[in-house]
């Protein structure tokens, strides 16, 4: 009950911010941080709970983004339809990738997911309808609902998506599915011997994770008013999506949220004050520090602090 009350409060806070008179740039930056929350939470469902490290994040983000572009360009679909379409196709991609690769383990699974990125990028680069390799300029619709600008509306929508992603991750963590995924992470052979339907739950996790990544990518073309393959299929999405749960803690749904807020805020500050090119360096340095000094992330540090203070 407290969790759902917190979700309702956060929705009202995000709505209040979107309708306030604060600087417009904060909504550009806030959109990115909220998108990071969705991506980190989505990655953690498969990578954190089950221990299957997915480096194919850009493929799912791009499927969501390019599905939105096709829907908008062909039938002028509203943003909600674009997001639903992107989520459905990215979820289908997750299911397909899972069927082909989830029998692989460790580094072999990770390499297979990277291959998906390059295959889809090659397809998109040769697809003229969505701009091909040169990209496509988009004109935002004039309808911004009750908000003063389209950017504020996108900020609010991404806020709702972030809250929804967290709610899904929390439900999975506490459900039979989450218990099964943790059993797979600890020992897949032991889980199978205990009667856990390992392939089934991994496929569900891969589908849900992929759908959430696609949902996170769908509003991006309207956010940028432009889309092109190089940035959409950028592997920095994989680094960030992996780094944020590790920094926050992969064992709990709260970890990706903490990591995304921390890392996303630092990256936005670095972008404004120094250079956007240093974003990947920031992620790398923080990853090294946390892997060496706090392998269980921020949540692990808090847990140790509580134990030592007793």
Q: Any overview of this molecule?
A:
The protein is an all-alpha fold and 310 residues long. It has one domain (2-234). It has helices spanning 2-18, 25-47, 57-75, 79-101, 107-125, 150-174, 176-186, 188-193, 198-217, 220-224, 229-232, 236-248, 254-273, 279-293, 297-309; strands at residues 136-137, 226-227. It has a two-stranded antiparallel ribbon.
Features:
310 residues, mainly alpha, two-stranded antiparallel sheet, 15 helices, globular
Layout of secondary structure:
Layout: H1 2-18, H2 25-47, H3 57-75, H4 79-101, H5 107-125, E1 136-137, H6 150-174, H7 176-186, H8 188-193, H9 198-217, H10 220-224, E2 226-227, H11 229-232, H12 236-248, H13 254-273, H14 279-293, H15 297-309
Antiparallel strand pairs: 1-2
**Overall pLDDT confidence:** 89
Distance between the termini: 29 Å
In DSSP terms, counting alpha (H) and pi (I) runs of 4 or more, how many helices?
Answer: 15
The tally of strands reads 2
Provide the succession of SSEs.
HHHHHEHHHHHEHHHHH
What is the molecular shape?
Answer: globular
- Give the low-confidence spans: none
Taking Cα atoms only, what radius of gyration do you get, to the nearest Å? 19 Å
Main sheet: strand order: 1-2
Helicity range of the residues? over 70%
Beta-strand content bin: under 5%
User: Which structural class should the secondary elements be placed in?
Assistant: mainly alpha
Largest sheet: 2 strands, antiparallel
**Domains counted in the coordinates: how many?**
1
């Amino acid at each position: 009950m407290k969790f759902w009350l917190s979700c309702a409060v956060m929705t009202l806070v995000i709505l209040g911010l979107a309708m306030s008179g604060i600087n417009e740039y904060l909504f550009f930056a806030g959109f990115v941080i909220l998108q990071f929350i969705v991506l980190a939470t989505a990655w953690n469902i498969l990578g954190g709970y089950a221990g299957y490290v997915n480096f194919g994040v850009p493929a799912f983000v791009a499927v969501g983004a390019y599905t939105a572009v096709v829907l908008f360009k062909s039938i002028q679909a509203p943003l909600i339809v674009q997001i639903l379409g992107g989520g459905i196709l990215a979820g289908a991609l997750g299911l397909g990738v899972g069927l082909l690769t989830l029998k692989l383990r460790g580094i072999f699974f990770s390499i297979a997911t990277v291959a998906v990125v390059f295959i889809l990028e090659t397809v998109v680069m040769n697809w003229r309808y969505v701009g091909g390799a040169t990209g496509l300029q988009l004109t935002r619709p004039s309808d911004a609902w009750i908000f003063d600008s389209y950017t504020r509306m996108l900020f609010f929508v991404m806020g709702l998506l972030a809250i929804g992603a967290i709610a899904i991750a929390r439900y999975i963590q506490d459900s039979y599915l989450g218990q099964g995924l943790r059993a797979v992470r600890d020992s897949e052979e032991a889980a199978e011997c205990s009667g856990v339907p390992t392939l089934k739950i991994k496929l569900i996790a891969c589908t849900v994770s992929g759908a959430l990544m696609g949902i996170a990518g769908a509003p991006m073309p309207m956010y940028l008013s432009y889309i092109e393959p190089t940035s959409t299929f950028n592997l920095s999405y994989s680094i960030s999506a992996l780094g944020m749960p590790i920094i926050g803690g992969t064992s709990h749904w709260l970890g990706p949220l903490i990591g995304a807020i921390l890392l996303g805020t630092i990256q936005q500050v670095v972008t404004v004050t120094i250079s956007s090119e240093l974003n990947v360096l920031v992620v790398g340095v923080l990853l090294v520090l946390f892997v060496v000094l706090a392998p269980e992330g921020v949540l692990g540090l808090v847990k140790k602090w509580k134990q030592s203070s007793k």
